[in-house]
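Entry 14: structure prediction run for Histone H3.3-like isoform X2. Input pasted below.
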Amino acid sequence: MVRRKADARSIDSSRTAHSDKSRTDVLVDRRKIQKAHILKEIRYFRKSVELLIPKLPFARIVKEIMTDLFPRSDVRRVQPLALEALQEAAEAYLVQFFEDCVLLSQHGKRVTLQIQDMILMRRLRGRDDIINK
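Run finished. Output tokens:
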């Protein structure tokens, strides 16, 4: 093992080293920053009126469902206004469903949304709900 001589210090460097020791660093909890950022995002999305799901992937999935349900049909095109109305309805349903699931998780004194909350929500909505058909 080789020992090395410490670097020569000047008078200024010893003062800065001493002043660094007297300085206190403030530790910031990253979870608090992340939570504040998430809450800021939620406030932003509540105020916004634009659609949350991108239009092209939604159009692709709608066309795929159409070909699965009606394979012999020649309908391959959908009007943009019809797609927009369908996307608006789908997003409204999903948002309402997740809001109800979050209420169930809060009732269970939990912060995290779990799959059991979603299963219970589907059962509570009953057989008349569109997702249970």
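Notes: Residues 105 and 112 are 7 Å apart (CA to CA). Will compare against the previous run tomorrow.
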